[in-house]
Design a protein that fits this description.
heterodimer; A: mainly alpha; globular; B: mainly alpha; 68% helix
């Protein structure tokens, strides 16, 4: 077997919904266990084994849930944008399943990023909300997620929905660089990135380690939930197709 | 500059909110998965099955 056929074999396995159900079944439990361990370690660091900030005091602990959720809001949209390409360009059978499964997760992570940002903003900036570039572009992202979830539910024909949602998702992807660079382009209340910065992270290891562990924990949570949701979506489509066939056969008799 | 006890309420609210939404997401994903499995099992019990069920 050549390298090329080996690659095609892997790709075909990934692309086939039935095969996806087979191999992904073995991923759910290990992913869930790693997620639980990472959360246990991360929360221990975040709540009991990390110092207060010299300016923000205890409220620095909000960073350990705010930053991971903000990161996942963008990652989730990135997954949806790649899946949208898969739907429009390659008509990948699992692409629209991946996109549909990621949308409600992205909406939840964005809602948590907005909520925790608001809880952090009040004691540090003196306000729950400010219409600055970063916060406004995040609110737009949240509304886009809700719109995409609504679009998926508006169509009975999920193949048609996938094409419409894919176009909307790719158009909406313009908001991602706006979110990332909003703190550079505009003079915002929100501070610039403290982790990915010229000259390395702008925080001591005592704050950085809990943040990285919590970010990894939330990323594994997303991976676990995404696989579970994708499996559920395949089962839902299979059941819907069987129900249609059953109804057609019953009508024909 | 905040003292060590200032803002504790905001920290608790942030973690509570995230905890509720995260646990809600997990519960929703598990319940929906179970619902779809039951739906398929009910169809199979009625004798409705896929034409090409081999390996799927």
């Amino acid at each position: 077997m050549t390298d090329e056929t080996a690659r095609m074999g892997w790709f075909s396995r990934l692309a086939h919904p039935g095969q996806f159900l087979q191999w992904s079944r073995h991923w759910v439990a290990p992913l869930a266990v790693v997620t639980a361990i990472l959360f246990a370690v991360g929360l221990w660091f975040a709540l009991f084994n990390s110092p207060e900030d010299y300016q923000m005091g205890q409220t620095v602990r909000i960073m350990y849930v705010h930053v991971p959720n903000a990161w996942l809001s963008e990652l989730c949209y990135g997954v949806m944008a790649i899946a949208a390409l898969g739907t429009l360009v390659w008509r990948h059978p699992m692409a629209d399943v991946a996109a549909k499964s990621a949308a409600p997760l992205g909406a939840a992570f964005t809602a948590m990023a907005l909520f925790t940002g608001s809880m952090w903003g009040r004691p540090t900036w003196g306000t729950y909300w400010e219409w600055d570039g970063r916060m406004t572009s995040y609110l737009i992202l949240f509304l886009m997620y809700l719109g995409i979830v609504a679009l998926w539910n508006a169509f009975e024909d999920q193949l048609r929905a996938a094409r419409v949602v894919a176009v909307v998702t790719l158009v909406g992807a313009i908001n991602i660089p706006i979110i990332i660079f909003s703190v550079v382009w505009w003079n915002t209340l929100h501070q610039p990135s403290s982790i990915i910065a010229k000259g390395g992270p702008r925080m001591p290891p005592s704050l950085l380690i809990p943040l990285l562990v919590m970010t990894l924990a939330f990323t594994f949570l997303f991976a676990t939930l995404h696989v579970v949701r994708m499996r559920t979506e395949v089962l839902r489509r299979r059941a819907a197709s069987l129900e249609r066939r059953h109804a057609a056969e019953a009508g024909g008799n | 500059m905040l003292t060590s006890t200032e803002g504790i309420g905001f920290v608790v609210a942030a973690y509570l909110g995230v905890g509720i939404v995260t646990l809600g997401l997990i519960a929703w994903a598990m319940l929906d998965a179970r619902r779809q499995k039951r739906r398929l099992a009910a169809l199979e019990a009625k004798g409705v099955s896929r034409r090409s069920s081999g390996g799927n």
